[in-house]
Amino acid sequence: MATRRIVSPRSLPLRPIISRPYSSSAAHHRVPLAYDHHIPPKDGRHKQDAPIIFMHGLFGSKKNNRSVSKVLARDLKRHVYTVDLRNHGDSPHAPRHDYIAMADDVAGFIRDHDMQNPTLIGHSMGAKTAMTLGLTEPDLIADLVSVDNAPIDATLESSFARYIQGMRRIDEAGVTKQAEADKILAEYEEEVPIRQFLLGNLHRPADSATQKFRVPLATLAKSLGHLGDFPFKDPAQARFEKPALFVRGTRSRYVPDEVIPVIGQFFPRFTLVDIEAGHWVISEKPEEFIRAVIEFLTPKE
Asked: What radius of gyration, in Å, describes the C-alpha atoms of the chain?
């Protein structure tokens, strides 16, 4: 069950998705983001009116939150855009991979699509991207949902560096089947669901007999040292005064109790919801996550 902490006052069929390649109209210093578009029922809002932008975590993609996004589009009657952040999925690669750059990409996505009052939802790396954009350009968004991350500097788990080592070995091995890749990755990660998640980044380039990873492993490896950091240090200089929902997994170490005051300093109108889960809150407890988001985004009388 989800436990809600309010820290300060305050059966239709699923619709199809439409996939779009990234736009070439973004400014040169930004990466134009690939996305999937999840359409609400016919009586839903216009696609530019309060859409939801869903952002994945490290090694993820727009495919990760497809089922949840369909439900949110249906039940909230709002358009949902799941995006590939830079250096992930079908979005372009870039040598810079940090939260300021990723937030700027999302800001460009919002402006390119002329979106009004969007909601940002992000998990892990996507959560810090959402928080960064909220503090950088608060007038650009209406509210945000941070899933199992906090506005603090933290050390990434060592498993991420281990994953990159295994993924590099797979690239070097020239595998032709996913089963071959899984056998190699099993030396670095024993949990089958996590291996399947990582191997979702494999693809077969045109005119190639071997499979390779879509993500630029060298770039991501270099970024690991600062991906645990948060670009804002002083709440007196940047605050997001609009509603914010923080969802944390109670078995995860990413949002310990001692950082809750810091969340309140940067996001004074935040609500905290605890879900009995690990770091992968959305995939572990999708129904509880959906309930928390729908309650947060449903207008109060």
From this structure: 19
Which member of 37, 79, 88, 279 is catalytic? Answer: 279
The structure tokens listed for 255 are 């949002």
Nearest to residue 80, comparing CAs of 139, 147, 23, 15?
15
Q: Would you state the structure tokens that stand for residue 198, as one six-digit string?
A: 């990582």
Reading the block at residue 287, the tokens are 């129904």
Among residues 69, 124, 146, 223, which one is catalytic? 124
C-alpha span between 226 and 289 (Å, rounded)? 28
Q: Is the pTM of this model over 0.85?
A: yes
CA–CA distance, 57 with 48 (Å, rounded to integer): 25
In the residue annotation, 279 being an active-site residue is answered as yes
Nearest to 41 by CA among 19, 14, 65: 14
**What is the enclosing helix (H) or strand (E) of 212?**
strand 212-213
What DSSP string runs through 5-44? EE-S---PPPPPEEEEPPPS-S-TTSPPPPEEEE---TTS
Tell me the three state secondary structure of residue 3.
Answer: strand
Which pLDDT tens digit goes with each residue over 96-116? 999 999 999 999 999 999 999
Tell me which amino acid residue 18 is. I
124 is catalytic: yes
Sign of the C-alpha dihedral, residues 275, 277, 281, 283? negative
